[in-house]
Amino acid sequence: xxxxxxxxxxxxxxxxxxxxxxxxxxxxxxxxxxxxxxxxxxxxxxxxxxxxxxxxxxxxxxxxxxxxxxxxxxxxxxxxxxxxxxxxxxxxxxxxxxxxxxxxxxxxxxxxxxxxxxxxxxxxxxxxxxxxxxxxxxxxxxxxxxxxxxxxxxxxxxxxxxxxxxxxxxxxxxxxxxxxxxxxxxxxxxxxxxxxxxxxxxxxxxxxxxxxxxxxxxxxxxxxxx
Length: 226
What we know:
Strand content: 5-15%
Number of strands: 7
Distance between the termini: 20 Å
Shape: globular
Structural class: alpha/beta
């Protein structure tokens, strides 16, 4: 199965899909610290509850006073989501807040001996990595070389464990204008990492920009709306 990139605007959408999926087990790698991940879930939950629910008569829930306390409703959804994740034994979460920790984890990721690797979707395990591109942004590894190395490790790890692989860059409602989420696939990066030293004075070609999407297309199937 070809590794894929999926589009999710907020983290709760991804978690909801994973919780209701038919995969036998799911390994979710989050490219951030645990505290930041939990705060982001809460912010996403509050964002969801701020959207009015359309009624059959054309009115919405806000006009009826149903959505007046979005913070409280957001916290309820937040706690419900965490409880669902905790009770869903098929989901295992690993936190990799740095490029080095992510690459190290992918290199030594243990094989789940209990997983059933049948060709049927219901019996397959799934590997999901959230915000791997954002993890590279702002670092010397935000380049075709740096991203390719991490993508290759992810694909290799998934193949070794015979697991479908899914990547997603997810927005953060706390920072609407932040350079993260789907827009990162359209970001332009240089070919080589800044840490690479060349034996030539002509480095013009190394600074030729290439989009992250084009780099990812070597390994992944990307939807048209990315």
